[in-house]
Amino acid sequence: MMSDAISHTILLGIVIAFFITHDLNSPLLLIGAALMGLVTVFLVEFIQKVQKISEDSSIGLVFPLLFSIGVLLISRYAGDVHLDTDAVLLGELAFAPFDRLVVNNVDIGPKSLYVMACILSLNLGYIGLFYKELKLVTFDPILAGVLGISPAIVHYSLMTMVSVTAVGAFNAVGAILVVALMIGPPATAYFITEKLQHMILASVFFGILSAVTGYAASFWLDVSIAGSMATMTGLIFFTVIMTAPRKGIIAVIRRSCQQKYEFAGLALLIHLLTLEARKPGGGQGQADDLVNQLQWQASFFHRVLDRLVINQYAALQANEIRITAEGRSYVQQSKLYRQLSGYEV
Fold first, then answer.
1. I need a labelling partner for 318 at 20 to 30 A (CA). Which of 93, 144, 202, 259 fits?
2. How many Å apart are CA 258 and CA 260, to the nearest integer?
3. Residue-range definition of the domain harbouring residue 172
């Protein structure tokens, strides 16, 4: 949410800096955007602390206000300048190679390539130098303060880098793709691993994958490049969220069903032990009677019973169900049985 807000509100910083310099190529635009990103973070946190409202609500107040002011200023005072809301939101990556960087009358390549390469170097250097501080402040800001690390300085320095990265990508890709690539790949990586270093590497991989597949899709379908990349970011995210081995929806549903049948099987075995305690030496239970006693659907009961028989926890002979030695050991080792061991039937 904060990245989304910053990537939009820096428009106001760009507009104000342009009104001061009247030059779209001035480095003050980058400085103005970065400062507006910090102003956004400060206002959100100020409202959150003073008014005691949630961060989402604070962002919902600050983000539309600053962004709409920027849009109004562009519409009213910069109508004849190559600075419009469509470029801000969507960008046009296909035209980025035509904005050339010329040094001493020598064309050395697309300007966006060098701008983003410099910002990439800054980000890599920042993470490399302050990785420990960033990790500590993110997961335990109290401990960081005790160790002499200022959470506020680390936080605002990170927000500065977010602002600089967002404004650097503004001209080429627009705010929508900036938000998509800032949020989508890390969110996708979170479903793959819980180790921070692996998560960072996975985020880079998913970001590159989204860019490559998005560009290929845009070329094939003849649509917006930035829009295709943002779409692929979402598709990759939903693919991973469905199929991730531990946290994916399919894995969670499968694990939930497995736990359901394991618990039902354990309950059935405990019920058989209860019947055995009531009638020592007798048959432990008829299948039809057990269905009525447990008030289960017959189909569900037989699926549970089949699992117990396959695992050799129970044996079925002439419609009579008996618990095996393996089943008795399995029940006695279970936490549920130990919790119920003091219950008198």
1. 259
2. 5
3. 93-247
